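Hey team,

Filing this mostly as a record. A colleague (T.K.) asked me to run one chain through the structure pipeline before their review meeting, and I want the input and output archived in the tracker in case anyone asks later how it was produced. No errors, nothing strange. Just documentation.

Input sequence:
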Amino acid sequence: MLMDDKKYLDFLVSLILIVLGVFVLAYSIFITIETGTAFIVSPGFLPGLLGGALILCALLLMAESLRATGLKTTLAQLKDWWHETLHSKQTRNTVLGMLIMFVYTCVLMAFLPYWLATLIMLLFLFFYLHSTKPVRAVLIAVLTVACIVGVFQYAFHVRLP
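Output structure:
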Protein backbone atom coordinates (compact mmCIF):
# COMPACT_ATOMS: atom_id res chain seq x y z
CA MET A 1 0.00 0.00 0.00
CA LEU A 2 1.37 3.43 -0.92
CA MET A 3 1.73 6.18 1.64
CA ASP A 4 -0.94 8.21 -0.18
CA ASP A 5 -3.40 5.40 0.49
CA LYS A 6 -3.09 5.96 4.24
CA LYS A 7 -4.57 9.44 4.53
CA TYR A 8 -7.02 8.02 7.07
CA LEU A 9 -4.08 7.58 9.46
CA ASP A 10 -3.25 11.26 9.00
CA PHE A 11 -6.84 11.97 9.99
CA LEU A 12 -6.48 9.81 13.12
CA VAL A 13 -3.22 11.50 14.09
CA SER A 14 -4.77 14.92 13.56
CA LEU A 15 -7.59 14.00 15.96
CA ILE A 16 -5.09 12.87 18.59
CA LEU A 17 -3.03 16.05 18.15
CA ILE A 18 -6.12 18.24 18.47
CA VAL A 19 -7.01 16.56 21.76
CA LEU A 20 -3.43 17.02 22.98
CA GLY A 21 -3.42 20.67 21.88
CA VAL A 22 -6.72 21.34 23.67
CA PHE A 23 -5.31 19.75 26.84
CA VAL A 24 -2.15 21.87 26.68
CA LEU A 25 -4.16 25.03 25.99
CA ALA A 26 -6.58 24.32 28.84
CA TYR A 27 -3.71 23.59 31.23
CA SER A 28 -1.97 26.81 30.25
CA ILE A 29 -5.15 28.69 31.14
CA PHE A 30 -5.24 26.83 34.47
CA ILE A 31 -1.62 27.87 35.11
CA THR A 32 -2.51 31.48 34.34
CA ILE A 33 -5.45 31.42 36.73
CA GLU A 34 -3.33 29.81 39.47
CA THR A 35 -0.59 32.43 39.18
CA GLY A 36 -3.07 35.30 39.09
CA THR A 37 -1.11 37.19 36.44
CA ALA A 38 -1.99 38.39 32.98
CA PHE A 39 -1.83 35.66 30.35
CA ILE A 40 0.92 37.39 28.37
CA VAL A 41 3.32 37.33 31.36
CA SER A 42 2.23 34.09 33.03
CA PRO A 43 4.17 30.81 32.92
CA GLY A 44 1.21 29.42 30.94
CA PHE A 45 1.76 31.76 27.99
CA LEU A 46 4.29 29.65 26.05
CA PRO A 47 2.44 26.34 26.59
CA GLY A 48 -0.78 28.10 25.51
CA LEU A 49 0.92 29.41 22.40
CA LEU A 50 2.33 25.97 21.59
CA GLY A 51 -1.03 24.28 22.27
CA GLY A 52 -2.76 26.70 19.92
CA ALA A 53 -0.10 26.13 17.25
CA LEU A 54 -0.50 22.38 17.65
CA ILE A 55 -4.25 22.65 17.18
CA LEU A 56 -3.78 24.81 14.08
CA CYS A 57 -1.26 22.40 12.53
CA ALA A 58 -3.48 19.43 13.35
CA LEU A 59 -6.45 21.13 11.67
CA LEU A 60 -4.32 21.70 8.56
CA LEU A 61 -3.31 18.03 8.58
CA MET A 62 -6.94 17.01 8.98
CA ALA A 63 -8.02 19.19 6.06
CA GLU A 64 -5.28 17.70 3.88
CA SER A 65 -6.25 14.16 4.84
CA LEU A 66 -9.90 14.78 3.98
CA ARG A 67 -9.28 16.60 0.72
CA ALA A 68 -9.15 13.60 -1.60
CA THR A 69 -11.67 11.19 -0.09
CA GLY A 70 -13.97 13.13 2.20
CA LEU A 71 -15.07 12.44 5.74
CA LYS A 72 -17.35 9.46 5.07
CA THR A 73 -14.77 7.47 3.10
CA THR A 74 -12.00 8.37 5.55
CA LEU A 75 -14.06 7.18 8.51
CA ALA A 76 -14.90 3.92 6.68
CA GLN A 77 -11.20 3.32 5.91
CA LEU A 78 -10.30 4.13 9.51
CA LYS A 79 -12.94 1.69 10.79
CA ASP A 80 -11.57 -1.10 8.54
CA TRP A 81 -8.00 -0.36 9.63
CA TRP A 82 -9.02 -0.34 13.31
CA HIS A 83 -10.82 -3.68 12.99
CA GLU A 84 -7.84 -5.24 11.18
CA THR A 85 -5.39 -3.84 13.73
CA LEU A 86 -7.34 -5.07 16.75
CA HIS A 87 -7.44 -8.61 15.39
CA SER A 88 -3.82 -8.87 14.26
CA LYS A 89 -1.28 -11.11 15.91
CA GLN A 90 1.26 -8.28 15.95
CA THR A 91 -1.10 -6.12 18.04
CA ARG A 92 -1.69 -8.96 20.50
CA ASN A 93 2.06 -9.51 20.83
CA THR A 94 2.67 -5.80 21.37
CA VAL A 95 -0.01 -5.56 24.05
CA LEU A 96 1.33 -8.70 25.74
CA GLY A 97 4.85 -7.26 25.67
CA MET A 98 3.60 -4.07 27.29
CA LEU A 99 1.76 -6.12 29.90
CA ILE A 100 4.91 -8.13 30.66
CA MET A 101 6.90 -4.91 31.10
CA PHE A 102 4.16 -3.50 33.35
CA VAL A 103 4.17 -6.61 35.55
CA TYR A 104 7.97 -6.55 35.69
CA THR A 105 8.17 -2.86 36.55
CA CYS A 106 5.16 -2.40 38.82
CA VAL A 107 4.73 -5.80 40.42
CA LEU A 108 7.96 -7.82 40.41
CA MET A 109 10.27 -4.85 41.02
CA ALA A 110 8.04 -3.63 43.85
CA PHE A 111 8.18 -6.86 45.84
CA LEU A 112 11.36 -8.70 44.80
CA PRO A 113 15.05 -7.84 44.63
CA TYR A 114 16.22 -6.57 41.24
CA TRP A 115 18.14 -9.69 40.33
CA LEU A 116 15.24 -12.04 41.09
CA ALA A 117 12.63 -9.91 39.30
CA THR A 118 14.86 -9.65 36.23
CA LEU A 119 15.59 -13.36 36.26
CA ILE A 120 11.87 -14.22 36.42
CA MET A 121 11.06 -11.80 33.60
CA LEU A 122 13.82 -13.13 31.35
CA LEU A 123 12.83 -16.73 31.97
CA PHE A 124 9.19 -15.93 31.24
CA LEU A 125 10.15 -14.21 27.98
CA PHE A 126 12.40 -17.06 26.88
CA PHE A 127 9.75 -19.67 27.58
CA TYR A 128 6.90 -17.64 26.09
CA LEU A 129 8.82 -16.90 22.90
CA HIS A 130 10.16 -20.48 22.66
CA SER A 131 13.46 -18.87 21.76
CA THR A 132 15.74 -21.64 22.97
CA LYS A 133 15.82 -24.91 24.87
CA PRO A 134 14.88 -24.70 28.58
CA VAL A 135 18.36 -25.48 29.94
CA ARG A 136 19.93 -22.92 27.63
CA ALA A 137 17.25 -20.32 28.56
CA VAL A 138 18.00 -20.73 32.27
CA LEU A 139 21.74 -20.52 31.64
CA ILE A 140 21.43 -17.36 29.51
CA ALA A 141 19.06 -15.70 32.00
CA VAL A 142 21.29 -16.45 35.00
CA LEU A 143 24.45 -15.31 33.21
CA THR A 144 22.74 -12.14 31.98
CA VAL A 145 21.55 -11.17 35.45
CA ALA A 146 24.93 -12.05 36.95
CA CYS A 147 26.71 -9.88 34.38
CA ILE A 148 24.35 -6.94 34.91
CA VAL A 149 24.69 -7.12 38.69
CA GLY A 150 28.42 -7.73 38.49
CA VAL A 151 29.17 -4.89 36.13
CA PHE A 152 26.86 -2.24 37.52
CA GLN A 153 26.72 -3.02 41.22
CA TYR A 154 30.27 -4.20 41.82
CA ALA A 155 32.40 -2.74 39.02
CA PHE A 156 30.72 0.69 38.71
CA HIS A 157 29.26 0.81 42.24
CA VAL A 158 25.79 1.68 40.93
CA ARG A 159 23.00 0.78 43.32
CA LEU A 160 20.48 -1.29 41.40
CA PRO A 161 16.77 -0.86 42.21
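Quick notes for T.K.: The chain has a mean pLDDT of 92. The CA atoms of residues 99 and 108 lie 12 Å apart.
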